[in-house]
Amino acid sequence: MTAAVEPTGPVVPDAPAAALHAEGIKVQFGGLIAVNGVNFTVPNGGIVSLIGPNGAGKTTFFNALTGLYKVAAGYVLLGGRDITGLPPHRVADLGLARTFQNIRLFGLMTAEENVKVAMHSHLKSGVFGTVLRTPRQRREEKEAHETALELLDFVGIGKTAGEYARNLSYGDQRRLEVARALALRPKVLLLDEPTAGMNPRESAQFTEFVHRVRDEKGLSLLLIEHDMSVVMRVSEHITVLDRGEKIAEGSPEQIRTNDRVIEAYLGTAGKESGA
Ligand SMILES: Nc1ncnc2c1ncn2[C@@H]1O[C@H](COP(=O)(O)OP(=O)(O)OP(=O)(O)O)[C@@H](O)[C@H]1O
Protein backbone atom coordinates (compact mmCIF):
# COMPACT_ATOMS: atom_id res chain seq x y z
CA MET A 1 0.00 0.00 0.00
CA THR A 2 1.30 3.48 -0.83
CA ALA A 3 2.03 5.76 2.11
CA ALA A 4 -0.10 8.88 2.01
CA VAL A 5 1.46 11.86 3.77
CA GLU A 6 -0.30 12.05 7.11
CA PRO A 7 0.98 13.56 10.31
CA THR A 8 0.82 10.48 12.49
CA GLY A 9 0.81 6.72 12.76
CA PRO A 10 2.74 4.21 10.69
CA VAL A 11 1.22 2.80 7.54
CA VAL A 12 0.73 -0.91 7.99
CA PRO A 13 1.85 -2.54 4.72
CA ASP A 14 -0.57 -5.48 4.68
CA ALA A 15 -3.51 -3.67 6.21
CA PRO A 16 -6.79 -4.80 4.70
CA ALA A 17 -8.02 -2.31 2.11
CA ALA A 18 -10.86 -1.13 4.31
CA ALA A 19 -12.15 2.19 5.59
CA LEU A 20 -11.81 0.89 9.15
CA HIS A 21 -10.29 -2.31 10.43
CA ALA A 22 -9.89 -3.48 14.02
CA GLU A 23 -7.97 -6.56 14.99
CA GLY A 24 -8.00 -8.42 18.30
CA ILE A 25 -9.54 -5.54 20.26
CA LYS A 26 -9.63 -6.12 24.00
CA VAL A 27 -10.89 -3.61 26.58
CA GLN A 28 -10.77 -4.25 30.29
CA PHE A 29 -12.29 -2.41 33.26
CA GLY A 30 -10.39 -3.80 36.24
CA GLY A 31 -11.27 -7.47 36.26
CA LEU A 32 -14.11 -7.13 33.72
CA ILE A 33 -13.27 -7.88 30.10
CA ALA A 34 -15.85 -5.76 28.27
CA VAL A 35 -14.55 -6.48 24.75
CA ASN A 36 -12.54 -9.59 24.07
CA GLY A 37 -10.44 -10.13 20.94
CA VAL A 38 -12.87 -8.62 18.44
CA ASN A 39 -11.91 -8.40 14.75
CA PHE A 40 -14.00 -6.05 12.71
CA THR A 41 -14.05 -4.36 9.32
CA VAL A 42 -15.99 -1.53 7.70
CA PRO A 43 -15.43 -1.77 3.93
CA ASN A 44 -14.90 1.39 1.89
CA GLY A 45 -18.31 2.92 1.28
CA GLY A 46 -19.98 0.29 3.45
CA ILE A 47 -22.84 0.62 5.93
CA VAL A 48 -22.25 -1.70 8.87
CA SER A 49 -24.25 -2.14 12.07
CA LEU A 50 -23.07 -3.39 15.41
CA ILE A 51 -25.79 -5.07 17.43
CA GLY A 52 -26.09 -7.11 20.59
CA PRO A 53 -27.94 -7.24 23.91
CA ASN A 54 -27.52 -4.60 26.62
CA GLY A 55 -24.04 -4.77 28.10
CA ALA A 56 -22.64 -6.70 25.10
CA GLY A 57 -19.78 -4.21 24.75
CA LYS A 58 -20.94 -2.18 21.74
CA THR A 59 -20.35 1.29 23.17
CA THR A 60 -17.11 0.17 24.76
CA PHE A 61 -15.96 -1.06 21.35
CA PHE A 62 -16.92 2.30 19.77
CA ASN A 63 -14.99 4.09 22.49
CA ALA A 64 -11.96 1.90 21.82
CA LEU A 65 -12.11 2.66 18.09
CA THR A 66 -12.27 6.42 18.66
CA GLY A 67 -9.52 6.58 21.29
CA LEU A 68 -11.81 7.36 24.23
CA TYR A 69 -10.86 4.07 25.90
CA LYS A 70 -7.42 2.51 25.93
CA VAL A 71 -7.20 -0.94 24.40
CA ALA A 72 -5.51 -3.71 26.41
CA ALA A 73 -4.72 -5.55 23.18
CA GLY A 74 -5.26 -5.20 19.45
CA TYR A 75 -5.04 -2.35 16.97
CA VAL A 76 -7.24 -0.08 14.89
CA LEU A 77 -6.50 0.94 11.29
CA LEU A 78 -8.23 3.89 9.64
CA GLY A 79 -7.72 3.67 5.87
CA GLY A 80 -4.79 1.33 6.56
CA ARG A 81 -3.13 3.69 9.06
CA ASP A 82 -2.60 2.68 12.65
CA ILE A 83 -4.59 5.00 14.96
CA THR A 84 -4.41 2.81 18.07
CA GLY A 85 -3.86 4.81 21.22
CA LEU A 86 -4.25 8.24 19.61
CA PRO A 87 -6.37 10.72 21.59
CA PRO A 88 -9.97 11.24 20.36
CA HIS A 89 -9.31 14.66 18.80
CA ARG A 90 -6.45 13.26 16.68
CA VAL A 91 -8.62 10.32 15.64
CA ALA A 92 -11.34 12.79 14.62
CA ASP A 93 -8.83 14.94 12.70
CA LEU A 94 -7.67 11.85 10.82
CA GLY A 95 -11.20 11.14 9.62
CA LEU A 96 -13.14 9.11 12.19
CA ALA A 97 -16.09 11.16 13.49
CA ARG A 98 -18.90 10.08 15.77
CA THR A 99 -22.14 10.94 17.45
CA PHE A 100 -22.99 9.91 20.99
CA GLN A 101 -25.73 7.76 22.55
CA ASN A 102 -26.53 10.71 24.82
CA ILE A 103 -26.75 13.79 22.67
CA ARG A 104 -23.81 16.11 23.32
CA LEU A 105 -24.63 19.52 21.90
CA PHE A 106 -23.99 23.00 23.24
CA GLY A 107 -27.56 23.77 24.27
CA LEU A 108 -27.11 27.53 24.53
CA MET A 109 -25.40 27.84 21.17
CA THR A 110 -27.37 28.05 17.95
CA ALA A 111 -27.50 25.11 15.56
CA GLU A 112 -25.16 27.00 13.24
CA GLU A 113 -22.68 27.72 16.03
CA ASN A 114 -22.67 24.05 17.06
CA VAL A 115 -21.61 23.09 13.53
CA LYS A 116 -19.02 25.89 13.31
CA VAL A 117 -17.34 24.78 16.52
CA ALA A 118 -16.63 21.43 14.90
CA MET A 119 -15.02 23.14 11.89
CA HIS A 120 -12.47 24.85 14.07
CA SER A 121 -9.71 22.31 13.31
CA HIS A 122 -10.00 23.05 9.58
CA LEU A 123 -9.75 26.82 9.92
CA LYS A 124 -6.35 28.31 9.19
CA SER A 125 -6.46 31.68 10.97
CA GLY A 126 -4.62 31.64 14.25
CA VAL A 127 -5.21 33.68 17.40
CA PHE A 128 -3.86 36.90 15.82
CA GLY A 129 -6.19 36.53 12.88
CA THR A 130 -9.09 36.20 15.30
CA VAL A 131 -8.09 39.26 17.32
CA LEU A 132 -7.20 41.49 14.38
CA ARG A 133 -9.96 40.25 12.06
CA THR A 134 -7.64 39.93 9.10
CA PRO A 135 -9.11 39.60 5.58
CA ARG A 136 -8.26 35.91 5.73
CA GLN A 137 -10.23 35.53 8.93
CA ARG A 138 -13.24 37.37 7.50
CA ARG A 139 -13.11 35.12 4.44
CA GLU A 140 -12.92 32.01 6.62
CA GLU A 141 -15.84 33.21 8.72
CA LYS A 142 -17.96 33.68 5.62
CA GLU A 143 -17.00 30.23 4.30
CA ALA A 144 -17.70 28.63 7.69
CA HIS A 145 -21.12 30.30 7.75
CA GLU A 146 -21.94 29.01 4.25
CA THR A 147 -20.65 25.50 4.94
CA ALA A 148 -22.58 25.31 8.22
CA LEU A 149 -25.80 26.30 6.44
CA GLU A 150 -25.14 23.76 3.69
CA LEU A 151 -24.62 21.00 6.25
CA LEU A 152 -27.76 21.97 8.17
CA ASP A 153 -29.69 21.92 4.90
CA PHE A 154 -28.17 18.57 4.03
CA VAL A 155 -29.41 16.98 7.26
CA GLY A 156 -32.81 18.63 6.76
CA ILE A 157 -32.78 21.31 9.47
CA GLY A 158 -31.62 24.38 7.54
CA LYS A 159 -34.48 26.44 8.95
CA THR A 160 -33.24 26.00 12.51
CA ALA A 161 -29.79 27.56 11.95
CA GLY A 162 -30.47 30.46 14.32
CA GLU A 163 -32.21 28.48 17.07
CA TYR A 164 -30.66 27.35 20.31
CA ALA A 165 -29.78 23.66 20.10
CA ARG A 166 -31.68 22.92 23.29
CA ASN A 167 -34.93 24.20 21.75
CA LEU A 168 -34.81 21.77 18.81
CA SER A 169 -36.95 18.64 18.76
CA TYR A 170 -35.22 15.42 19.71
CA GLY A 171 -35.06 14.18 16.12
CA ASP A 172 -33.63 17.53 14.98
CA GLN A 173 -30.99 17.45 17.72
CA ARG A 174 -29.89 14.04 16.40
CA ARG A 175 -29.68 15.53 12.91
CA LEU A 176 -27.67 18.44 14.26
CA GLU A 177 -25.24 15.97 15.82
CA VAL A 178 -24.77 14.37 12.41
CA ALA A 179 -24.21 17.80 10.79
CA ARG A 180 -21.60 18.56 13.43
CA ALA A 181 -19.84 15.24 12.82
CA LEU A 182 -19.91 15.88 9.05
CA ALA A 183 -18.26 19.26 9.64
CA LEU A 184 -15.12 17.33 10.53
CA ARG A 185 -15.11 16.01 6.95
CA PRO A 186 -14.77 12.42 8.10
CA LYS A 187 -13.99 9.34 6.04
CA VAL A 188 -15.86 7.13 8.48
CA LEU A 189 -18.86 8.15 10.56
CA LEU A 190 -19.88 6.29 13.72
CA LEU A 191 -23.47 6.72 14.88
CA ASP A 192 -24.28 5.53 18.40
CA GLU A 193 -27.99 4.68 18.64
CA PRO A 194 -29.02 7.35 16.12
CA THR A 195 -32.76 6.58 16.20
CA ALA A 196 -33.10 6.44 19.98
CA GLY A 197 -36.02 8.71 20.91
CA MET A 198 -37.17 9.17 17.32
CA ASN A 199 -40.79 8.57 16.44
CA PRO A 200 -41.61 5.81 13.88
CA ARG A 201 -41.83 8.30 11.01
CA GLU A 202 -38.41 9.79 11.84
CA SER A 203 -36.91 6.29 12.16
CA ALA A 204 -38.30 5.30 8.76
CA GLN A 205 -36.83 8.46 7.15
CA PHE A 206 -33.54 7.75 8.83
CA THR A 207 -32.77 4.73 6.62
CA GLU A 208 -32.99 6.84 3.51
CA PHE A 209 -30.92 9.55 5.21
CA VAL A 210 -28.06 7.15 6.03
CA HIS A 211 -27.86 6.04 2.40
CA ARG A 212 -27.84 9.66 1.27
CA VAL A 213 -24.98 10.48 3.68
CA ARG A 214 -22.97 7.57 2.31
CA ASP A 215 -23.69 8.33 -1.34
CA GLU A 216 -23.43 12.13 -1.34
CA LYS A 217 -20.62 12.56 1.20
CA GLY A 218 -18.69 9.48 0.07
CA LEU A 219 -18.41 8.07 3.59
CA SER A 220 -18.41 4.70 5.23
CA LEU A 221 -20.77 4.32 8.18
CA LEU A 222 -20.87 2.24 11.32
CA LEU A 223 -23.96 2.23 13.53
CA ILE A 224 -24.93 0.90 16.90
CA GLU A 225 -28.68 0.51 16.64
CA HIS A 226 -31.30 -1.18 18.77
CA ASP A 227 -34.28 -0.87 16.45
CA MET A 228 -34.13 -4.12 14.48
CA SER A 229 -36.37 -2.90 11.68
CA VAL A 230 -33.92 -0.01 11.12
CA VAL A 231 -30.90 -2.35 11.36
CA MET A 232 -32.31 -4.80 8.84
CA ARG A 233 -33.23 -2.05 6.37
CA VAL A 234 -30.16 0.14 6.63
CA SER A 235 -27.25 -2.31 6.93
CA GLU A 236 -25.26 -4.04 4.24
CA HIS A 237 -23.38 -5.97 6.87
CA ILE A 238 -24.08 -6.70 10.54
CA THR A 239 -21.73 -7.70 13.35
CA VAL A 240 -23.19 -9.18 16.53
CA LEU A 241 -21.52 -8.91 19.94
CA ASP A 242 -22.54 -10.84 23.01
CA ARG A 243 -20.73 -10.54 26.34
CA GLY A 244 -17.77 -8.84 24.73
CA GLU A 245 -17.27 -11.40 21.97
CA LYS A 246 -18.22 -11.41 18.32
CA ILE A 247 -20.72 -14.22 17.89
CA ALA A 248 -21.79 -13.65 14.28
CA GLU A 249 -21.43 -11.43 11.25
CA GLY A 250 -22.97 -11.34 7.81
CA SER A 251 -25.74 -9.89 5.69
CA PRO A 252 -29.07 -8.91 7.31
CA GLU A 253 -30.55 -12.14 5.95
CA GLN A 254 -27.76 -14.27 7.40
CA ILE A 255 -28.06 -12.56 10.79
CA ARG A 256 -31.83 -12.83 10.89
CA THR A 257 -31.61 -16.59 10.45
CA ASN A 258 -28.50 -17.25 12.53
CA ASP A 259 -29.42 -19.57 15.42
CA ARG A 260 -26.80 -18.19 17.79
CA VAL A 261 -27.98 -14.64 17.23
CA ILE A 262 -31.61 -15.59 17.66
CA GLU A 263 -30.78 -17.31 20.93
CA ALA A 264 -28.60 -14.48 22.27
CA TYR A 265 -30.55 -11.50 21.13
CA LEU A 266 -33.20 -11.40 18.50
CA GLY A 267 -35.65 -14.01 19.66
CA THR A 268 -38.72 -14.26 17.51
CA ALA A 269 -38.85 -10.45 17.13
CA GLY A 270 -35.84 -10.61 14.80
CA LYS A 271 -37.44 -13.26 12.63
CA GLU A 272 -40.56 -11.19 12.35
CA SER A 273 -38.97 -7.82 11.52
CA GLY A 274 -39.28 -6.93 7.84
CA ALA A 275 -36.29 -6.49 5.54
N1 LIG B 1 -16.57 2.96 32.15
C1 LIG B 1 -16.85 1.71 32.55
N2 LIG B 1 -16.36 1.20 33.71
C2 LIG B 1 -16.64 -0.06 34.10
N3 LIG B 1 -17.41 -0.91 33.39
C3 LIG B 1 -17.93 -0.47 32.24
C4 LIG B 1 -17.68 0.85 31.75
N4 LIG B 1 -18.35 1.00 30.57
C5 LIG B 1 -18.96 -0.16 30.33
N5 LIG B 1 -18.72 -1.05 31.33
C6 LIG B 1 -19.20 -2.44 31.40
O1 LIG B 1 -18.75 -3.07 30.21
C7 LIG B 1 -19.77 -3.93 29.69
C8 LIG B 1 -20.14 -3.49 28.29
O2 LIG B 1 -20.88 -2.27 28.37
P1 LIG B 1 -21.29 -1.41 27.09
O3 LIG B 1 -21.90 -0.14 27.59
O4 LIG B 1 -20.14 -1.31 26.17
O5 LIG B 1 -22.39 -2.33 26.44
P2 LIG B 1 -23.42 -1.98 25.27
O6 LIG B 1 -23.47 -3.17 24.40
O7 LIG B 1 -23.06 -0.70 24.66
O8 LIG B 1 -24.77 -1.86 26.10
P3 LIG B 1 -26.09 -0.95 25.81
O9 LIG B 1 -26.76 -1.55 24.64
O10 LIG B 1 -26.88 -1.14 27.07
O11 LIG B 1 -25.63 0.46 25.60
C9 LIG B 1 -20.93 -3.88 30.67
O12 LIG B 1 -20.78 -4.97 31.58
C10 LIG B 1 -20.72 -2.55 31.38
O13 LIG B 1 -21.25 -2.59 32.68
Number of strands: 10
Uncertain residue segments = 1-10, 270-275
Q: What coarse outline follows from CA principal-axis ratios?
A: globular
The CATH level-2 architecture of the largest domain is identified as: 3-Layer(aba) Sandwich
How are strands sequenced across the largest beta sheet? Answer: 6-7-8-3-9-10
Strand content: 15-25%
Distinct compounds present = adenosine-5'-triphosphate
The overall number of domains is: 2
Helix count, DSSP H or I runs of 4 or more residues = 10
Looking at CATH, the homologous superfamily of the largest domain is P-loop containing nucleotide triphosphate hydrolases
What is the fold-level CATH name, i.e. the topology of the largest domain? Rossmann fold
Please give the share of residues in helix.
25-40%
Mean pLDDT across the residues is: 86
Distance between the termini: 37 Å
The CATH C-level class name of the largest domain: Alpha Beta
Q: What can be said about the biggest beta sheet? A: 6 strands, mixed
List the helices and strands in order. Answer: EEEHEEHEHHHHEHEHEEHH
Task: Report the structural category.
Answer: alpha/beta
The value of Rg in angstroms is 19 Å
